[in-house]
Amino acid sequence: MSLLITSQVLLWIAVGSLAVVVVALARQIGVLHERIAPVGALKIDTGPAIGEKAPLLTLPTLGGGVGVIGQPLEPGTAQLLMFVSPDCPVCKKIIPLVKDFARAEKLQVLYVGDGRAEDQRRLVERFQLDPLAFINSPEVGMRFGVGKLPYAVLIDDAGIVVASGLVNSREHLESLVVAKQMRVPSVQAYLRQKAAEDAATSASL
């Protein structure tokens, strides 16, 4: 009888210990999730700063037209500059997402490349892009301080740079729009600001 009671006590102790471990793990997962989400486009501190006027550029497109960057647009619209390359595997992954995302968000997309025109035209044909919406010029990348790809810049209807960063997923693209709506330089900036506010609140308690 005493052996049965002892076994039951040990069983309850084991169950209680397991419950404590589960609670601790759940808390750690929550902390980890808070630290890594949402994952936004990684901002690189080069080129025009957020809130600055975008350089006004008028350059020829692959389709024989003219692409204009930084001009005033219809109220409520925005221009998305998408820097890509035929030699960039991630670019090939992101382009279809950009096409769908731009339609959903009603963005005017202007793709920007820097390489041989023949290679860029093959990229345009492969992904059925509008050649009139593709600029092939190193000047744009230099003016916006682009060093890695794929890179995106979001410009509002007044020609102001409102968000930018490296992008490799739809979530990264969405973070640019979120940053614009929240009027912060990037989602990372928002998370830092929120963490500082939370820390200040905790310190005051």
List the defining traits of the structure above.
205 residues, alpha/beta, Glutaredoxin, five-stranded mixed β-sheet, two-stranded antiparallel sheet, 7 strands, 18% strand
Overall description:
48% of the residues lie in helices and 18% in strands. It is an alpha/beta fold. The chain has a domain at 57-192: Glutaredoxin (3-Layer(aba) Sandwich), CATH 3.40.30.10. The chain is elongated, with a radius of gyration of 24 Å.
Brief digest:
Helix content is 48%, strand content 18%. By secondary structure, it is α/β, with parallel strands linked by helices.
Please outline the helices and strands:
Elements: H1 2-36, E1 57-60, E2 66-69, E3 78-83, H2 89-105, E4 107-113, H3 117-126, E5 134-136, H4 138-143, E6 151-156, E7 161-166, H5 170-182, H6 187-204
Parallel strand pairs: 3-4, 4-5
Antiparallel strand pairs: 1-2, 3-6, 6-7
The shape is: elongated
Q: Which percent bin holds the helix content?
A: 40-55%
CATH C-level category of the domain at 57-192: Alpha Beta
- What is the CA-based Rg, rounded? 24 Å
Main β-sheet, spatial strand arrangement = 5-4-3-6-7
Q: Can you tell me the CATH architecture of the domain at 57-192?
A: 3-Layer(aba) Sandwich
Mind summarizing the main beta sheet?
Answer: 5 strands, mixed
Query: How much strand?
Result: 15-25%
